[in-house]
Amino acid sequence: MKKFLKRDSSTPLESFAFCKEKLICLTKFYPSKFSYMELMGLQSQLETFIRDVRFDNQFLKLKRIVDLSQMLVKTKNYIVYPMVYLLVKLVLFCLWQPQQLKDASPQ
Predict the structure, then answer these.
(1) Model confidence over 60-94: pLDDT tens digits?
(2) Plot region of 76 (φ>0 → left; ψ -120 to 50 → alpha; else → beta)
(3) Which DSSP symbol is given to 5?
(4) Domain count of the fold of the chain
(5) Which residues contact 92 (CB under 8 A, 6 or more apart)?
(6) 3-state per-residue secondary structure call for 8-32
């Protein structure tokens, strides 16, 4: 999952901006969550989201992807950008999953 996000980015928003093509490719592994029509609009929605919040201090101060998820809910941007919110949740799931597998393995 780390290869999908830019490691030296100071904020999750910068990571999304630099890696949007890779993030969009990630959605192809989850066809039940992203329909063909949604995929067609995702890149545009992601670009619009990044442009809209790039100068918003609430978003610029975020340090973790989970903070981005929470801010999307707090600002109600999850309603305006539903595909971006779903993408953020997917990234969170993919980051969380390897740790769960490690924790579940026999000692």
Answers:
(1) 888 888 899 999 999 999 999 999 999 888 888 87
(2) left
(3) S
(4) 1
(5) 65, 66, 69
(6) CCCCHHHHHHHCHHHHHHHHCCCCC
AA letter at 88 = V
Domain coverage including residue 37 = 2-104
- pTM value is 0.72
**CA 4 to CA 20: how far, in whole Å?**
9
106 Cβ contact partners less than 8 Å away, ≥ 6 residues apart: none
Tokens found for residue 85: 């919110």
Amino acid at 40: M
Q: Would you state the structure tokens that stand for residue 27, as one six-digit string?
A: 């959605």
